[in-house]
Amino acid sequence: MKVYLSPSGQYANTYSYGNTTEKEQCTKIALACQAALQRCGIEALCEPDVEFYQRIANADAAGVDLYVPIHTNAFNGQTTGTRMFYYSVLSKGFKACKAIFPYVDELCPGTSSNIKSNPGLIELKKPKAPGAYVECDFHDVPKIAKFIIEHTTEIGEAIAHGICDYFGVKYFINESVSQNTIIIELPKIFRNSSGRTVMALQALLNDYGCRGEDGEKLKVDGIAGANTIHAVKVYQDAMDLETDGIVGADTWGKLLK
């Protein structure tokens, strides 16, 4: 498996906080993502100072399996949220976007997030490989810009985690990132909990081979129903945890180890 990471080269796009630019911060995110992917056994190419048409040519020549542009966004100084784009719903890029999106959106603080087709984007239209285009959040909102600057490593890790899910490869946590911090940021999950964190949980349980009451893989639908809670208990039993079906600090700690 081989991935090409293409961070924004837009040095003229200044952040509303921190006297920095989109190019500088997206390069940091991409390099953190590259390190995470390589840690997980996925070859990752990243050439931040190469013009993007040349990047496409280099990616094609290398025969990469996924092309991932990494950007931050700007609009009106108020809009926030993660955006992801793919070429078409029939493309593997759509599947990659669905795998990456929950991790980035759960981490970044913006509130208006979505995944959409955008076949007009050059870095989705031109590469031979399927593409998953990431707009992490909006840098023209000062509090969001501050968050991005302070969390480039975590954002890169989140993108890598989703890429691992896309390829069906186990994600190995970055030992230099505090596990306690990650656990604190993740809410407890109970029966009937819902949302993006539940989607991430369901994907992890599927990766570990934990099945629902019906013996099938979990639907990654963001709803903690009977099948999801059953799979949680299966995992807890296997890990010698209390089999209460509640995903708290201990269970998250094992799942993300």
Structure description:
The chain has 257 residues and is an alpha/beta fold. It has ten helices and six strands, in the order E-H-E-H-E-E-H-E-H-E-H-H-H-H-H-H. It has helices spanning 22-39, 52-62, 92-107, 122-125, 142-150, 152-167, 179-185, 196-207, 226-238, 249-255; strands at 2-7, 43-46, 66-73, 83-86, 114-117, 133-138. It has a six-stranded mixed sheet, with helices on both faces. Strand 1, helix 1 and strand 2 form a beta-alpha-beta unit. Mean pLDDT is 92; it is low at 178-184.
Attribute tags:
single chain; 257 residues; alpha/beta; 10 helices; 44% helix
Average pLDDT figure: 92
Report the sheet-strand fraction: 5-15%
Taking the alpha carbons of the first and last residues, their distance comes to: 23 Å
Structural class: alpha/beta
The count of DSSP E runs of length 2 or more, i.e. the number of strands, is 6
Low-pLDDT stretches are: 178-184
Q: Strand sequence of the main sheet, in spatial order?
A: 2-1-3-6-4-5
Overall form: globular
User: Helical stretch count?
Assistant: 10
* Sheet of most strands: 6 strands, mixed
User: Roughly how much helix do the residues carry, as a percent range?
Assistant: 40-55%
Radius of gyration: 18 Å
- Along the chain, the helix and strand elements come as EHEHEEHEHEHHHHHH
